[in-house]
């Protein structure tokens, strides 16, 4: 199996297609398998690489808590690209993977041709910080004490996941089966060290104002914990566009794969033609 090395941790990846590279960065509840509908679509014209984050087998599952956290995940994207001799790529991330991708755009701007940031920002708003921290640690306890199957049942029936069940029961069952296979230790440490401890996106406001990388923000209108922070990001990142998909929850790429693939494809094409520009200054005059 192919692996890339990142700070002594082996990351399993899969690659398909030829052309300009796209790196897919998965969310907490998923692994690279949940990008399958995107890999099949974009591999027609692009070199597509999806990988499992640290803590997600067959990638390494480190024992030390200090080997987890958002900064490691940001560096993992860069080290994967370096290991594959990729100098620049489109980066597509969902939720936890979107957070890492967005910070990657700040820390490694020359390596990001564009950023697709989907379902980012749970727990970012000030009023949500305490409850999100508590939820993350409680979820970690479930993984450790009750196992991945029990944790999957809780996550899969949450308020922003039930939409997938209602739209696509077979897809939801597949998502649940994959989630129930995740490493208890890896998932718990990811929750405790990454999800619970990551800074609010608002802490990066100065960096967002300086960004000039093309950004597509994508989310479902029923992804309640992410709605307000995405409007905030749209206002702070001058090169950001915001797409909100109606009647859709957190796993937007699974719930609405045709729309997601179409919108992202148009975005990538616009970027490659040099037509994705910064927001016109005149459009900001009504913002106080």
Distance between the termini: 53 Å
Total helices: the number is 12
What composes the largest sheet? Answer: 8 strands, mixed
Helix content: 40-55%
Spans where pLDDT lies below 50 across 5 or more residues: none
Following the backbone from N to C, one meets helices and strands in this order, namely EEEHEHEHEHHHHHHEHEHH
The secondary-structure class comes to: alpha/beta
> Numbering strands along the chain, what is their spatial order in the largest sheet?
1-2-4-3-5-6-7-8
- What's the rounded overall pLDDT mean? 96
Please state the CA-atom Rg, rounded to the nearest Å: 18 Å
Number-wise, the strands total 8
What shape does the CA trace take? globular
What percent of residues are in strands?
Answer: 15-25%
What are the key terms here?
12 helices; 288 residues; alpha/beta; 17% strand; 8-stranded mixed sheet; single chain
What does this structure look like?
There is one protein chain. This protein has 288 residues and is α/β, with parallel strands linked by helices. 45% of the residues lie in helices and 17% in strands. The protein has an eight-stranded mixed sheet, sandwiched between helices. The longest helix is centred in the middle third of the chain and has 18 residues, at 129-146.
Secondary-structure topology with pairs:
Layout: E1 3-6, E2 9-16, E3 20-25, H1 36-42, E4 46-51, H2 70-83, E5 89-94, H3 96-107, E6 112-118, H4 129-146, H5 148-156, H6 162-167, H7 169-180, H8 184-195, H9 205-210, E7 215-220, H10 224-236, E8 240-245, H11 252-255, H12 257-272
Parallel strand pairs: 3-4, 3-5, 5-6, 6-7, 7-8
Antiparallel strand pairs: 1-2, 2-4
Helix pairs in contact: 2-3, 4-5, 4-8, 5-7
């Amino acid at each position: 199996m192919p692996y890339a090395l990142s700070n002594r941790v082996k990351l399993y990846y899969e690659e398909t297609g030829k052309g300009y590279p796209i790196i897919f960065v998965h969310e907490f509840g998923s692994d690279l398998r949940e990008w399958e509908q995107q890999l099949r679509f974009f591999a027609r014209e692009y070199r597509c690489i999806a990988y499992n984050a640290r803590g997600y087998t067959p990638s390494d599952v480190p024992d030390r808590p200090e080997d987890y956290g958002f900064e490691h995940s940001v560096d993992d994207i860069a080290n994967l690209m370096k290991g594959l001799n990729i100098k620049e790529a489109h980066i597509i991330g969902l939720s936890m993977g979107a957070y890492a991708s967005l910070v990657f755009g700040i820390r490694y701007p020359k390596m990001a041709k564009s950023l697709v940031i989907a379902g980012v920002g749970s727990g970012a708003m000030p009023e949500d910080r305490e409850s999100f921290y508590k939820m993350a640690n409680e979820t970690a306890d479930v993984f450790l004490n009750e196992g991945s199957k029990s944790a999957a049942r809780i996550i899969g029936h949450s308020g922003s996941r039930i939409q997938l069940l209602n739209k696509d029961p077979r897809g939801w069952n597949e998502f649940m089966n994959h989630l129930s296979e995740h490493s208890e230790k890896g998932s718990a440490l990811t929750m405790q060290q990454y999800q619970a401890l990551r800074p609010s996106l608002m802490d990066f406001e100065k960096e967002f104002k300086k960004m000039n990388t093309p950004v597509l923000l994508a989310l479902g209108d029923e992804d309640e914990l992410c709605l307000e922070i995405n409007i905030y990001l749209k206002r702070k990142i001058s090169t950001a566009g915001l797409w909100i998909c109606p009647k859709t929850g957190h796993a937007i790429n699974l719930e609405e794969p045709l729309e997601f693939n179409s919108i992202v494809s148009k975005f990538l094409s616009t970027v490659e033609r040099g037509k994705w520009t910064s927001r016109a200054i005149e459009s900001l005059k009504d913002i106080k």
